[in-house]
Amino acid sequence: MLDHERVPGARRARLVAVRGGARLDPLLVGEPLAALADACAVLPAPPFGYVQMTPRDGRSVVEDGSAPLEGSGSVSTRAWAVRWGGRADRVGPVLNNLPPGAVDDAVTEYAAQARRLGDRPLRLVVAVQRFLVPEVTLLCRAAPGCRSVRLRGCWGLAEALDGAPHFDEWLLEGPDLDLRESRVAAKLTATAAGAAGTRRVAVRPGYRVRNVLHLPAVRAIAGQARVIAKSLRRPVEVEVGVRADGNWLLACSPE
Hints:
Elements: E1 11-14, E2 16-18, H1 26-29, H2 31-39, E3 48-53, E4 60-63, E5 75-82, E6 88-98, H3 103-115, E7 123-130, E8 136-142, E9 148-155, E10 168-173, E11 178-183, E12 189-194, E13 197-202, H4 215-232, E14 236-243, E15 246-254
Parallel strand pairs: 1-4
Antiparallel strand pairs: 2-3, 3-7, 5-6, 5-7, 8-9, 8-14, 9-10, 10-11, 12-13, 14-15
């Protein structure tokens, strides 16, 4: 971790942990982070918190690293430039499997990218989430009152690393989420956790041309995405990590 005594102009930034059931003000933290907190009533999320700062801040030292988060180990970060009304634009990539000591550098880099935006945002918000290694990641698009839910799924992480992930696709419709369309991708490679980051790995031959999830599991997650969209009263894309110990909400992006 950076030593703020040795970094000229470094500012202290506090990592605020978001406890279960907490409500966040979208005007302050942006709509995506507030939606993630609200959606935890439907799907559990790994412990997460956020750092808030102005993009003009240079070097930042995040107090306590990821200590306020429950558990231990590596983290994921994602950032938004928050504007008037809570509208938030993504800044930079999602960074997965970072050691806690790398949060400072991630926040500083996000701030540099936010400063390059033409329309200067009010603040930069960086989400810091305990990293869990998913076997499968699903991206689900749902909207209140819409009959259909579209889903994409890949082995490992939905992170573009040396090429886009290879996604299977499903379209489910109606009150019972009946299957209307599906496509199985040829998944030769996937993004997996590496040493202090991620890496591209080869998918085992028997898993390359098979669905990453069986239909009942896809349907269950689609139903949860539909509930989240209804509770938020707007279309959303939900990112879900699937593991042996359950399904975990990684992100919730209002559209």
